[in-house]
Each structure stands twice: as C-alpha cells, then as structure tokens.
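COURSE: Structural Biology Practicum
ASSIGNMENT: Worksheet 4, Part C
STUDENT ID: 0417
INSTRUCTIONS: Below are two proteins. For each, the amino acid sequence is given first, followed by its structure token string. Answer the questions at the end about the second protein only.

PROTEIN I
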Amino acid sequence: MADLYERLGVARGADEAAIKKAYRKLAKELHPDRNKDNPKAADRFAEVTQAYDLLSDKDKRAQYDRGEIDEQGNPKFAGFGGGGARSGGFRAGPGGFEFSTDGADMGDIFEGLFGGGRGGGFGGFGGFAGGQRRPARGADVAYRLAVPFEDAAALKPQRVTLGSGKTIDLKLSPGVESGTQMRLAGQGEPGPGGSGDAIVTIEIQPHRFFRRDGDDIRLDLPITLREAVLGGSVKVPTVDGAVMLTVPKGSSSGKTLRLKGKGFHKRDGSRGDQFVTLRIDIPTDDAALRSFVEGWDDGAGRNPRAGLGV
C-alpha cells in the first residue's frame, strides 16, 4: 500500500498548504457523485481522505514521519497500545451524507510509552518503570456533508445528524469550498480518555445556472431583443433572492454587468460579486421580426467582424 504522501502525490516535506491543495484536487476528481460507475474511484477517495486526515493533524503527522504509526493511524508497536483502533471506508449515513470511523488517537498512548516529559524506564521510555500511561481517546468520526450551492454562498447553517443520533446546526465558515473540513470537538466515539472528534468534509453541490469563480458567481441571463435595444430593468436571481438589474440601451450578447456583494463570503469578512452575462434570446419564428430585419440596412452594411480581419 502506498504511503500517505504518495496517495496525495506530494513530497514528504510538503507544507500544510501543498497537502491541502493536493487533497482538494483529488477529492474533486474522485468524488463518488462524479464516479458512480467506477467503484475504484470511491475506494481511492476514501484512501486520500484518510491520508489527508492524518497528515493534516500535526501530532499524527509527526508520529507517522517518525514511524510510530502506520497508514491507518494505528501504532506499529502492537502489544503496547490500547485495543479498539479501527479503520474503515465511507458508508451510507443518516441525513444524506456518509461517514466512517478512523483509528483511535494514539498520541496519548505514545506519550505514555516514550516519556512525554516524564522520566523513568528503559532508555527514557516512560511507562515501563513507574510512568503512567494516559488512557486513549475515542476514535474520530469522518462525515461528508453535501451543501446546496446557495446555502454555501450565503453561509446558511446546515443541520447534521451524527452517527449517535444527535443533531447539530453546523455554522459554515467564510471561504468555505468543497474539501473544507470542520472539526466538532468531542462529537466522535467515546473512549476512556474522552470522546474523539467529528470531522465534517464539505462538498458544495453544483447549481443548474450559477457557476462559482473563486469568490465570485457567474450567471448567463437571457434577455429579449427589445430589452437589449431599448434597455430597461429586469429581474435577476441571486443566492440571496431576486434583484432588479438595469440593462443599458443597445446591449449586445456577451455584455457582462456586475452585482456587487452577491458572491461568496471571503475569509477577510468581505464578499465576492455576481457577474451577469447578457444573452439575447431571439424567437425562432417571428414573422414581424423577420420582416423588419429584411427591410433594415443595419447601418448601411456595417461589418461587426471587421476587427477580426474578415
């Protein structure tokens, strides 16, 4: 089995930003919703998610780099760690998302085994000669939450039903995107050293007419020929509800207008914009329009393609 760095396609010394970027790219490519006919993609998605869960935790990454835990997060010194470490893939979960349990947090176990600031024992290994090992926490639980496009843009709270049956209203953070992970402390599985955490991975659903462009939103807006020629106010959908937009007189298809502050919320507290591209919708069979155009010289032979050299 490939090591955690190979799964994500990053070097062993990669920084947090590189690891996060690599995971988000792979998560989008391998997402089960995009690969319904490819079961291997779902397995690979689970592998890269597990790799990211371990490498994004500084303590666990350090333990892995020192060879103290394996790719599942389990200690390599079987016989000293507490039982109950588990791993697993994604499976159907309540509330329309999926979840899996990963290995129990072994940080506390190794702190007892290898000293952690306490003296005693064979070569400084606390726990062999008088050092007291702290009990292990319960396992973390990973969830994957599908969030509607408009809700993500407007930061509307999402209701999550945990594996325990507990329901939590999750507040989305500014800058949220697919692959963003949110940690709910103490909402994982119980253990002698306390409960683990719930780790929620956000997956923003595509929209039927909105498109995300960084923190901005783009929309193609159909308008009539009359609205394009004469101008006027038209109603435009936004993630916050419909607003009125002024179309300038003589607008051509492809003209883009901006609605300020109607995009996604940014991490700095500001908000992106919505860009509206006008698309003139010509009726397929309008006798009056056809008769008008046949008798119109359109500026005495004006060539709108002259700038293209044709």
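PROTEIN II
(use this one for the questions)
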Amino acid sequence: MKLDPWVEGYIAYLGEVRRLTPATVRDVRCTLKRVSAAMSLLRPDTPLWKARLEDYLKWMEKERGERRSAASMAKDLSYIRGLLDYAWRSGRSDRNVLDGFQLMDGGPKKAPPVLTIEEALRLVESCPRGNRGERRDRAMILVLYGCGLRTAELCGLDVGDLDAERRELTVRHGKGDKARQVPVMEGLWTELMAYLGERGWKRGAFFRTAAKHTRISAKDVGDVVSAAARRAGLEARVTAKTLRHSFATHLMDRGVKLEVISALMGHAGPAETGVYLHALSGRKEAAVARLSGFEKEGKP
C-alpha cells in the first residue's frame, strides 16, 4: 500500500533533516507501511496520528499472536511514536497517544558491548595526527567516546554547535528530535580547537569528507571507527555505538548519577540508561560493604 503523502514528508524529514542512515529510513518506511495496513483494518480511513491507544493495543496483540519478538515490537513502537510526536508538534493531533508507552518485557536485558578504559585509550592512541585527514578522524573518535554521541548526531554537528564560552557541544537533533548540551573535557576541547583552527573555523558541517568536503555520512563514521579498531588490535567488534556505550559505562563506573548520564546521552529517562548497570559488577556489594563502618562515624 502507498503511504499518506504527509507520512512520506515525515520520512523525508528523517533523512534530510535528522540525517538518519538510508537503512534506518528504509526500515521506518517498511514499518509504517506494515502498521498502516494493519490499522486500516481496525480503523478504516483513519490516519495513524488519529488512531486511539486502544487501536494500537489491538495491533500489538495481533503482533504478539504472530510471534513477533519483543525487541522487534519495541523498535516498531519507537518508529510509530516518532511519527505521532512529529504530528503532535506539527499541530495535526492534540496528543501523542503512545507518549511514555513502553512494552513490559520481563526477560533479561542484553548487556551492550563496551570497551575497558585501557582499550578506549588504546583506540585513541592508535589514531595518528600526521596530516589533516588523520587529525579529522582522531577528532571523530574522540567526540564519539568523549561526548557519547550517536552516529547521526556526529554527522549532523555544525561548527556553530560548539559553544566556546561554555565549552560544550549542542546536539540539535537527538533521538526524538530533542536537543541537549554536552560538556567537552579539557583534552578533547584542546584538540577540537586545533582541528577547527586548522580549517579556519569555516561555517557549516563540523566534520567533512576529505575528497568533496561535504558532510560526513554514517558510512564514513563506520569506516573511521573500523580502521581505528584494526590499528588498536580490537578487531571488528568496535563500532561507533560501542564508543557511546563505553562513554556511559565509564561515567557510571565513576559514580556519576544515573539521571545525569541519561541527560548527557539524550535518553528519554533514567530507566533507559539503566541497561548500563551490567558494567558495575561488585558495585552493589561495595556499597553495602561501606555500611560496615557506619557505627564508627562520629565517634572519637
């Protein structure tokens, strides 16, 4: 079936403004086509953004009956929720009926892959600074790990998103099109200043391709990370997402509060960030162990 022209406009927005990867955009379109076909049987002649929560619940029940996995359904819901949120912000609906709705999956969450601090340092040290292209690639690795950005967020960065006075990056189009500010650590800040100074602080895309000087793509990012991982002897298991996961895990391992990490990551809430608790083996035991001396506090 053909999608509503307005929905096609939303999908174009994801690719052209949000700069999602072509594969993700295709996945969104396929999902919205499948959901539109199913919802047309439940609520004929009703666009997705006008459907009721009860309609979506019936659709989810049908999906469960067809043995769709919880992970697949959660992904579909995130795509639909994004469309409904866009419709609400555009004035096409008075609310997003799926706002805050989450599938309750009682199964154990799979721990995301992360690097140790030693591996992260080895990855950064494997990035040479011999020429302008190498310095650009090194800066990309540093921003991915040092700021926890998603691939699309890195690709969408502009030079104007760097606040020299506050020493922070502004991510203008995060997940759900939400903006956030991320502080930049001192060492990374110095390298970014040198990188942009070498470019003459030209406006526009923060990271550009070496050949055509156009904005980098998700493939460019993947190639840079894979090359750095090979040089560091970390093989193919390292991706841009691995660096983002490592950013959150290493902050948590240093005792940074969950809600702070959630804000830095651009998560919907601390519950989403809780997946990184897997990295804290021994943390709970250590916290309880600290209580063993509480009775001595305040005594001479």
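ANSWER KEY EXCERPT:
Q1: The chain has two domains: 5-89, 117-282.
Q2: The mean pLDDT is 84.
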